[in-house]
Amino acid sequence: MADTVHQGNSNVAPLTTPPRLAFTIVFTPEEEAMLKREVSGLHSYSIVCRVIGLRPNRGDLRDLLQVAFQHRIGKIVDVQFLGHAFYHLELDTIESIVVMLNANMINIRNTIACFVSWKLGFEPVEMLNSGHRLTLIS
Prior knowledge:
about 140 residues; 4 helices
């Protein structure tokens, strides 16, 4: 018996899995430098603030904290809302972080602000579910 091959009519099943795709993301040197600065700053001089009571917007919280700590801390560079009344604060010095952590809990305009150290991968929901309490220990 001779095998016959019919052109255009193959007995081979078509490929069912899609081909793998690979992507390469290329940054300009300026974009790469900016990205490195932003990522390194996320945890170098950062702290987490939980606000209990009225929830000010990011700018108001920054201003309220600057006034509350007066000249004891440097500049609050950035404030980002993380959800569930948690804010990420980026500060300009490690000394500012120490001052805020030592204050632990402050009252600013009938709003209580509590502070904990920032950890990479911080998730507000996990902190709430873990039962971790931000309280003043006297």
